[in-house]
Design a protein that fits this description.
25 helices; five-stranded mixed beta sheet; alpha+beta; 1459 residues; disordered N terminus
Length: 1459
């Protein structure tokens, strides 16, 4: 039967089961039925086995017909600047044989292939650091069908914040095409003038040990700086512990340095940096020292799954630093509680190693780390099993023509042993035999030379799976790719023709599909070598099989002798699995916590690691279920999974589960293999950090391993649950897999296949430094295996790396690289800071390089284009500097530039040229300038009536920074204009999540509702508003959790209160655009399912942050309001709400009660509460008797929220009972607007909602008129009311304001009643922290005077000053202009759990924490590099709660001098 692709796997299997059941029912045996009724168990067992085999045979038949494909995703480079394009390529290959869809005309693609492709819906998403979708596009499936390649690009907006982004490619309709992801980084950076790589001799050092590291250095254009002077410096815990200068590299660009670590280390934060002085160039190379202190995260994996007593067992280990990077150790295997050593192990690659020993029955073992010194925790081995089968591979990896050779040993005689070799879900070889006790048996499994890659070996005893491992078999076929340029070297802007020749492993020409990327190699080398992304062969052969693939170039390097060993270590750790038996009578379930989506993707893509659910026929006719033993597999799984005893609520110790091979094996034990096709996971938040290790305690569950239960999930129907036994892997994954109920957005760009840079420069002018100069997703070679590509070089003096990788129709894979050098005989290179502040002094280095065959003499002419910079020695915007440089020499000139005061961001271009007629060098670089000091804003707002005036006084402090004042005086003739201003303001808030997306979409809902409720509105405005809202809606639905509800980042479990907020938004959104009704129904039903039966709602403990952390009564009230607005029956919950409102006397809860009563048409009761709220109204119109809100806000934001909710309640009275307090409240709300916002995000949204609802009922007809503004009684300006204009704004009048008292008078002549706002923005030397801010920030630069090219640290301390826990907290740290943050250290802070995630915003680094415990203090060290000489002051740093951003703790900008 044809089954819709989106049907769940369980439903498909149930359908198959029902068909088989009918067949069996037709062929029933009456004699057996009689025996069965008499209780003859032998008949029952016989039928169980037969029926199970029959079904699994049918299931295998269905699965073998299923094609599965992996998408191998790549970008043109790993790091991007805002404003650049990200070029994306996806190669679709068959997961089994790595063949493409396309047979290049020589073999017709299968009908299934064609069907899949013709109906494919391939979509691409870009996800921000927090998981927020920032871009999506639907791709043309033709690209897959024609070439097995898809391609797209994303142009990064200039204002995009920096951080770690992901590109995700998926087929939203067909789960047999696996989702793929690739991470890239966005940040502002300088292209370094030298390329460097640092490598430590070991990946772990203890206190007092000697660390050794090597450095490789090459100039950007490719040659070795033999005469460069290099200084090595080591810093530990913020202090310098080593420095050595005068170092030189050898002819290969290499040098080595050793240094002792302090004997006492407290935190273990260490950095090794090299300052490279190469003539006129000074650059820095830095890397974190892998320091290991006291406790380590080490994991032990017995080969095959278990340690078996009395038999030689091989085991693997994997060790990590505190930041999650690999660590090298030497350790002993010790009998627990004794000093008896029975073995040892050392890591050899990526923190992995292996060894073996013979464990004894009833003894416990532990791993004791000997090196590095000082590690005090021990790592327990899994419990030794008395029975089982020890499985080991004879070789680390196998060649294409070799048999898979295994050794099996058992402590007991076993008569029925079966070993099966699988590729994905398909068995490809099998061997059946007997095992004699304690006699190792060698088993050779034959395979075709065409079968290669990662293979799975499963050992069965009496058809019970007991041990398993994966092995690697090298492919027979490969591509040999050679790339050559048409010249030896090139000049900037010159034309290039690359020739590519492709042959097979026998050097015969072959047709191939190639991806070609040419980009600036200095950017590629900014990433540590071991962390550079894999090419297509590594992707297809290994990456999809493991959790993460680092040092990927090592595994298939023919020059490396240990690469097979490294492959085995990789698969022996990340591919480890274990089988355990448990008593199903103890109800067991899995409760997933935070889940990492990249691991879910990997699980799905690997196919064979995610076992296919098997249907088990316990009793075909009566579906009886009794206690029985079942099998489950402990395998790779989402992070943080915990096995719980559902009845007792405590973790289940699976290490002691018996392997009862000596007892009769129950027929319920089912063979594992094939995987189900999976849907696509959603954006996930980063997992919480693991708990600290305690002495003598086992480490926490590894982030990519968890014990899995082979039971059907409790939510399945009883009939299905009794018949189906499934590996829990599928359901843990499914927790975060979204539903796609409608197609993603249509393509917003043409399909891009090729980009070739074309130089547009004038002769001898270097202005264009585009980093990727050629990219082609699919270059086809001819019959001779040849192809050519052409492009121009940019204006950089640098080297470019051409990467070519590809595939053939017969699954050949290969890659190659080629370096092009772009050189100038004479050039000038300014070294500019990324961003500076007014008042900074830049000592701008100018490197002058003379590679001519004679001396160069002349003048440098510097021109400043734009406002904000001036020469310190001269106010002119040009300067001449003489130079006289010998041949083959490099020199540096330093120019002092003063950064002038400015009122807004600006960019200044620096043009440097030479008067030497032989060279005519001209280069242009730019510098971003921002105002200095602390930002301040003085605001006033209200409503102005015709022929009246208002007077506002403002005091500007004497600490004003001159030239920074600017004004914004705006009038809002329509509700739409107010909403537009709010959206603009909300867009400036850092963060990306469900609520952040809502902050722009919810006002659009209100705007569109208002536009459609009025007559004569501009249709173009309506259409634009609708389109923007539809785009926002498509992003919002991506945050739906698989288990129900919505979450900040789409991660299970759902947040009840946040879901309520989303439900209200979707309910109102449905009135103006098309919204998926199924999603709304799911959301309502999920919220209703969370009722506790007492009138309140349950709250998941994992959701008790931000929205979910408010007091129970506030959460209950908020959810009740949301469900009431959605039309659900909530009378019982409303009664519960009224009890709380009466007891608490909280205006926030009372307002929600008032609204709900009106919605249930209980008007008199509602008016009673409305009158109570009116009694709480202050003279200024606010409602001020509340304790907190759903977001735990306080202060002015809380007052605005309570007042806005009260207005919504009063507006519900059709008889206008509360008109007078209503008008007063609206006056207060309008007066609370500050630059478009009303306080926190929730305060702003609720205030807007109240104002819009009021304006719908009390709209004012527009009329002609004139505004007048007078400043300090002297300056006057006027502005005519223009019909059809959303916002009426006066020009900037900041020049007419002064320090001290200022008066601004606004007057309207004729016109109509209209809201207005006045904002005065300026910067001051001193900040003004709020006394009500609940967090305190301290920021300090450890060294305020630094030598160029050295490093230091910014010490950041954030402390919760309150006695209660805090929700989302943000610290924004300003970095002085001449310093640059080490982004790789920021990544380490996230991996180590020090921060939850980060963003970079110019020179500011935003650090995010989702939770602060009471009185908790968090300390962070940010590594910075002294990059550009000068004297700098960074932007003011700040800390605040996300939901109370009006209360900020400010810290003065950090100051630094770079010399």
């Amino acid at each position: 039967d044809s089954t819709d692709q989106t049907t769940s796997d369980a439903a498909k299997m149930l359908k198959i089961f029902q068909d088989i059941k009918k067949k069996i029912e037709k062929g029933g045996d009456k004699k057996k039925d009689e025996k069965r009724s008499e209780g003859d168990s032998s008949v029952k067992e016989e039928e169980d086995v037969k029926e199970t085999e029959t079904f699994n045979s049918e299931l295998d038949k269905n699965e073998k017909d299923t094609r599965r494909f992996l998408v191998h995703l790549s970008t043109d480079k790993p790091i991007y600047k805002p404003g650049e394009k990200v070029y994306i390529r996806g190669v679709l290959l068959n997961g089994f044989d790595r063949r493409p869809f396309d047979r290049n005309g020589e073999k017709e693609a299968s009908q299934e292939d064609k069907s899949n492709l013709n109906s494919a819906s391939i979509s691409l998403q870009i996800l921000s650091p927090s998981g927020d979708e920032v871009f999506s596009v639907k791709l043309n499936p033709y690209d897959y069908s024609s070439s097995s390649v898809a391609s797209a690009y994303w142009e990064i907006p200039e204002e995009q914040s920096g951080g770690d982004y992901k590109v995700r490619l998926f087929d939203w309709k067909h789960p047999n095409i696996a989702t793929s992801e690739r991470e890239f980084n966005i940040r502002a950076f300088r292209n370094p003038r030298v390329k460097t790589q640092i490598k430590f001799q070991k990946k772990g050092y203890g206190a007092g040990e000697t660390a050794t590291a090597s450095l490789n250095v090459k100039r950007a254009e490719g040659d070795v700086p033999l005469n460069a002077s290099i200084t090595a410096t080591a810093r530990v815990d913020g202090k310098q512990v080593f420095s050595k200068g005068g170092l030189r590299v050898d002819s290969n660009g290499d040098l080595s340095v050793s240094f002792p670590l302090p004997s006492e280390i407290t935190e273990g934060d260490g950095t090794l940096s090299f300052t490279i002085e190469d003539g006129g160039v000074i650059e820095n190379a830095s890397q974190t020292i892998p320091i290991l202190l006291k406790k380590m995260d080490v994991r032990v994996y017995p080969e095959g799954g278990d340690l078996i007593a009395g038999i030689s067992n091989r085991f693997y280990v994997e060790a990590f630093t505190k930041s999650g990077d690999p660590a090298d150790i030497t350790a002993d295997v010790r009998v627990k509680g004794t000093k008896e050593i029975v073995g040892s192990v050392s890591t050899v690659h990526e923190g992995r190693g292996k060894s073996k020993f013979v464990p004894k029955k009833d003894q416990e073992y532990e791993l004791v780390v000997r090196k590095p010194s000082g590690i005090i925790n021990t790592i327990p081995f899994p419990k030794v099993q008395s029975n089982g089968i020890a499985l080991s591979s004879h070789k680390d990896a196998y060649q294409h023509d070799e048999e898979i050779s295994l050794r099996l040993t058992s402590p007991k005689d076993l008569n029925k042993v079966r070993v099966v070799l699988y590729k994905l879900d398909l068995p490809i070889s099998e061997s059946n035999f007997k095992l004699k006790a304690n006699q190792p048996t060698r088993v050779n499994l034959k395979t075709s030379s065409e079968v290669s890659g990662v293979l799975r070996v499963t050992v069965y005893s009496d058809e019970l799976a007991v041990s398993e491992r994966i092995v690697f078999k090298h492919p027979k076929n490969s591509l040999k790719i050679k790339v050559n340029g048409d010249k030896q070297s090139y000049a900037p802007g010159g034309s290039v023709q690359l020739s590519v020749t492709v042959t097979d492993q026998d050097d015969k020409p072959i047709k191939a599909h190639l991806g070609v990327t040419v980009t600036d190699d200095s950017v590629l080398e900014m990433v540590e070598k071991r962390k550079q992304v894999p090419r297509l062969p590594e992707m297809a052969l290994l990456e999809s099989e493991v959790d993460h693939l680092h040092d990927c170039q090592f595994y298939f390097d023919p020059n490396e002798s240990d690469n097979n060993l490294s492959i085995d270590l990789l698969l022996g750790t990340q591919g480890w699995r274990r089988f355990v038996l448990v008593d199903e009578g103890k109800r067991v379930s899995v409760e997933p916590k935070k889940v990492e989506e990249d691991k879910l993707n990997r699980l799905k893509a690997k196919n064979d690691y995610v076992p296919q659910p098997r249907i088990f026929f316990k009793r075909m006719m009566d579906f009886e279920v009794d206690d029985r033993m079942v099998v489950f597999n402990e395998m790779m799984a989402p992070a943080g999974c915990m096995i719980l005893n559902e009845e007792e609520g405590v973790p289940l110790d699976l290490s002691s589960a018996p392997m009862q091979l000596d007892s009769p094996v129950p027929v319920e034990a089912v063979a594992l293999p094939p995987p189900p096709p999976q849907l696509q996971p959603q954006p996930q938040a980063a997992p919480p950090p693991p708990p600290p290790l305690d002495d003598g305690c086992p480490p926490p569950p590894p982030p990519h391993f968890a014990q899995k239960i082979a039971l059907a999930p409790p939510e399945m129907m009883a009939e299905q649950r009794d018949m189906i036994m499934m590996e829990e892997d599928m359901f843990c994954e499914a927790e975060c897999i979204p539903f796609y109920d409608e197609e993603p957005s249509e393509p917003s760009q043409p399909q891009l296949r090729e980009f070739a840079f074309v130089s547009k420069k004038n002769p001898n002018e270097r202005t264009d430094f585009t980093e990727t100069i050629y990219w082609n997703a699919c270059v086809l070679t001819d019959d001779n295996g040849k192809a050519q590509v052409k492009f121009d070089l940019n204006d950089s003096v640098t080297s470019f790396k051409a990467w070519v990788d590809g595939f053939s129709k017969d699954a050949h894979l290969g890659s190659a690289s080629f370096v092009l050098e772009s050189r100038e005989p004479f050039y000038i290179e300014p070294k500019c800071p990324l961003e500076v502040s007014s008042g900074d002094l830049i000592r701008l280095p100018l490197a002058i390089v003379n590679n001519l065959d004679s001396n160069a003499k002349g003048e440098l002419l510097l021109n400043l284009e734009g406002k904000g910079l001036s020469f310190s020695s001269d106010k002119d915007l040009s300067l001449k500097i003489p130079f006289d440089i010998e041949r083959d020499k490099r020199e540096r000139k330093t120019i002092d530039l003063r950064v002038e005061n400015c009122r807004e961001k600006s960019k200044v271009q620096i043009a440097a040229s030479s008067s030497d007629s032989r060279v005519k060098e001209n280069v242009t670089r730019s510098i971003q300038i921002v105002p200095s000091g602390f930002p301040f804003q003085l605001c006033a707002s209200g409503v102005l009536n015709p022929d009246t005036e208002v007077n506002h006084s403002f005091v500007i402090p004497k600490e004003l920074i001159e030239g920074t004042i600017k004004t914004g005086i705006n009038f809002y003739p329509s509700t739409v204009s107010k909403l537009s201003e709010a959206i603009k303001s909300l867009n400036q808030t850092p963060c990306g999540c469900f609520e952040q997306t809502s902050m722009t979409s919810y006002p659009l809902v209100m705007a569109l509702q208002y536009l459609l409720s009025q007559t004569g509105m501009d249709q173009e405005t309506i259409d634009s508003c609708r389109k923007n809202l539809e785009d926002g809606y498509k992003r919002l639905v991506g945050y739906e959790c698989k288990s129900g509800g919505f979450d900040w980042f789409g991660t299970d479990p759902g947040h009840e209160a946040l879901t309520a907020y989303g439900l209200m938004q979707f309910t109102e959104m449905k009135k103006v655009i098309e919204v998926d009704s199924g999603m709304i129904e799911r959301t309502k039903n999920w919220l209703m399912s969370r009722r506790d039966g007492k009138g309140g709602f349950e709250r998941n403990s994992l959701a008790l942050d931000n929205f979910g952390g408010a007091p129970q009564e506030h959460t209950d009230a908020y959810i009740t309001w949301a469900l009431t607005e959605a039309g659900m029956e909530t009378q019982f919950e409303v009664e519960h709400l009224l009890k709380h409102a009466t007891a608490k006397k909280d205006a926030y809860i009372s307002a929600l009660a008032c609204i709900c009563l009106y919605r249930h048409n209980r008007v008199e009761e509602a008016r009673k509460w409305g009158r109570k709220l009116a009694e709480l109204q202050k003279e200024k119109g606010s409602i001020e008797d509340e304790q907190t809100s759903i977001t735990r806000s306080y202060g002015s934001s809380l007052i605005v929220e309570a007042t806005a909710l009260t207005v919504l309640g009063w507006l519900s009275d059709k008889e206008q009972t509360f008109l007078e307090p209503l008008n007063n409240a609206l006056k207060f709300l309008n007066g609370s607007c500050k630059g478009g916002n009303f306080g926190s995000t929730q305060a702003t949204l609720l205030a807007l909602k109240a104002i819009v609802e009021y304006d719908k009922l009390y709209a004012v007809l527009p009329a002609n008129g004139t505004f007048h503004v007078t400043i300090n009684g002297k300056h006057s300006s006027k502005l005519e009311i223009e019909k059809g204009k959303n916002t009426l704004s006066f020009e900037d009048l900041g020049a007419h304001l002064k320090t001290g008292n200022n008066t601004i008078v606004l007057r309207m002549e004729k016109g109509f009643k209209m809201p207005y706002s006045v904002a005065i923005d300026f910067n001051c030397v001193k900040g003004d922290s709020s006394d009500q801010c609940k967090v305190k920030l301290h920021a300090k630069l450890n060294d305020t005077k630094l030598k160029e090219g050295t490093t230091s640290e910014v010490q950041v301390v954030v402390q919760n000053q309150s006695a209660e826990s805090l929700p989302m907290t943000i610290a924004v740290i300003g970095i002085p202009g001449g310093l640059e943050v080490r982004v790789d250290k920021l990544k380490e802070l996230v991996k180590g759990g020090v921060i939850d995630y980060y963003e970079t915003l110019g020179r500011r680094v935003a650090l995010y924490w989702r939770y602060f415990a009471e009185k908790e203090k968090k300390t962070v060290l940010l590594d910075v590099v002294a990059a550009v000489p000068g004297t700098y002051t960074g932007p003011a740093s700040s800390a605040y709660l996300y939901y109370t951003n009006e209360h900020v703790c400010w810290v003065e900008g950090l100051r630094a001098e770079v010399v």
